[in-house]
Description:
This protein has 408 residues and is of the alpha/beta class. Helices cover 37% and strands 16% of the residues. It contains 14 helices and 13 strands. The strands form three sheets. The chain has a six-stranded mixed sheet, sandwiched between helices.
Amino acid sequence: MDAKNLTCRKCGAVYPLDNRYSCEACGGILEVTYDYEKAFSRNPVGNPDNSIEGMWKFRGLLPMEDKKNIVTLGEGDTPLLEAGRLARLWGCDLEMMVKAEMLSPTGSFKDRPTSVGVSVAKEKGFEKIVVASSGNASAAASAYAARAGMDCVVFVPDTTDPNKVIQAQSYGARVICVRGNYSRSFDMAKLCAERYGWANVTSTFINPYTVEGDKTPAYELYHQLGGRVPDYIFIPIGSGPLLVGILKGYEELKEMGLVHRLPSMVGVQVTACEPITQAFACGTDRVTGWDKQIKTMAGGISDPLIGYEGDGELTLAAVKRTGGRMVSLEEEEVWEASEAIETKLGLYCEPTGAVSAGAVKKLWNQGLLKKGALTVSLTTGHGFKYSGRQPKKPPIIDSADQLDQLVR
Length: 408
């Protein structure tokens, strides 16, 4: 393993690779750092370990000591699809592509960070894990815990989509609803980890190991695009570990000499809960927790960041460092994007995951994207997870004459 230590992103303090959630010196966010000279000499991205399928083929840059402790359901290797029909529908003169993360084993991108988090917990001898989630991470943690033979306790807001609650319960996890917004579930999971000594695999920035799974889409895009770097990568975000992780992946690719520039990172929120977008619009580096009422179909990114605003500030800094931007969609824009992805690309997508594509249209119409640019949108969650649809009752026939009337 080339992972070397945990390093505070704020003050630079260094710690061993143990079960730690924040810097003792300043309370800052921790990240896994590597012996990059050793890792890069083997070029683990250009020459992946093809004895393992999915994202673990890049395990030279993932924090695992023993291969036998990897807990996997085959996450990674999600398809990258050409989305020209979307671009033409919306009048965008762009090379538009979609990376379909909703086709992960449990139906969301959360499988990547959760696989790493649960694998590290297993390697360190934990038998119980806890997670806070707005839905998708609860399903992922429950599934990977079942795979690993571990107990799992899940905290979700009491407004969480029932389809996601059912999915987590079906894997055998104990699901507990917490009254209020996601930040209250986050606090409860943190309390349980501290009080009972469980491994907290909440996939924000609290667990430094989970974020390492979030960088693997960058490695896959490198191969899928033949070394080309997207001009813009659009990512739905609550606190933003996927955005920060993908950027870290591209920074590693650049250090290895495999690419020569970084993509501009675009974080996408909704106007019902947009603490990071508000900070970007105001030109500040400080994020204020969202204390307004939240009502949105994109519940997976409705993270108010109350009490851990530093997560949003880390994401905001990553966006600015790449010349990217933050953008938020109105509810009607979210639904339009979801419907367009389904009818034009054939991908059944939950509204949360569709905002990344809808933001391409919004920024193009605002004149903020360059003509002919290569854009990649990550659609992060499967449509089966969203229960808010109202189905149209199909017609019922019992004769050939009726068939002619309907389809001729």
